[in-house]
Amino acid sequence: MTNGDRKSRGVKSSSSETKQLPWRPFNDRPTGIWIDETVARIKETAQPELIESLYRNPLPKNATFRVLRHLITVDGTKRPEGDNCPCPMCTPNRFLTGSLVWFPELQCCAFIGNCCADDDVLAEAEKERKWRERRDYEETYLLAALPLVGPKLTVVETLKPVAFEAVRSYRKIRNTLPQVHEQLRKMKQHHGGQLTLTEIIRDESAENQDDYYGPAGFKGRGKDAVETRDYTFGTFSGHIAVHKDYNPTKELEDIHRSLTSVAADSYSQEALDFICEMSEKQRHAAVVILQDVEAKIVKFKERLRDLSLFYTRQNADRFHGFFTHELNSIYYKVEYTTVRGQPTLRFKKGASNYDLIRGSWADKLDFDWPSS
Which residues contact 292 (CB under 8 A, 6 or more apart)? Predict the structure, then answer.
């Protein structure tokens, strides 16, 4: 069959005597390499009508197509006649910005103007393009991420003792000095961590205002007016230490569970084979889970670092001023020291000492997390 007789299935000439220009048939969606090369040729030559692999004969206006590359702009100054590009779906001298598309039923590709399809066809084509872009992104992401699942699980295992010791340090604060823990939590909730004591200067109400945590100034009117004055002792660091419940071990277990839910025992399998076996729903879920793991490990490390900042000399000085002030109903002397080489906050009341020891877990937070 000669080039003049060559036709892609379903593509008809405008008349039986019109000679058909040659084109390359595409039974399947073209490769990314061909798309990139064709777009480059369109931009370089500014004459898509001379590219033989493209379909340049008249096309049905309602033909279904898939967008391969959207909004390609041709430099009109490069065109010999200074005209616009011809559109196989409508007329010559039609456009300078168009799209490279593939017609699955007609098994050909063409460069068409953006106006040359009805709204439904264009919307469907755009929807399909976005779907393919998401699919390509997810497959590329998984190709890089799946081989790292095994190494990440290994790191998670090495972090379990770190998380366990950090939980012990946190619970020592909460369980050894529950009143201190509760009052510091109130400072975090009401004052953003600024250690604040409020003195009631004038109280004209009959009610006790000991639980008042508002700003200095006046509260209420008339006989219920309360005049107050605030004393501040600075903002303490390590707010995670006074959370009602903090458990980095559970955070790590959640990360481990997420990683194994994606790959289970198959993370050592060839990533490409594993991805090919996934349904679209599984592939999308795997990407979401693995991206969530990345956010969780960052949060895990940041919260541990925050806990380590609770055990500082600056905190000890501020806590001492706060807990020894006459307005504070909870009394403790606080000093900074070291126990077994670890930073320690020592709370003292009478002959009793309560040591809050940081622990060596805080020296193991610069771990390497596998990344592509």
Answer: 258
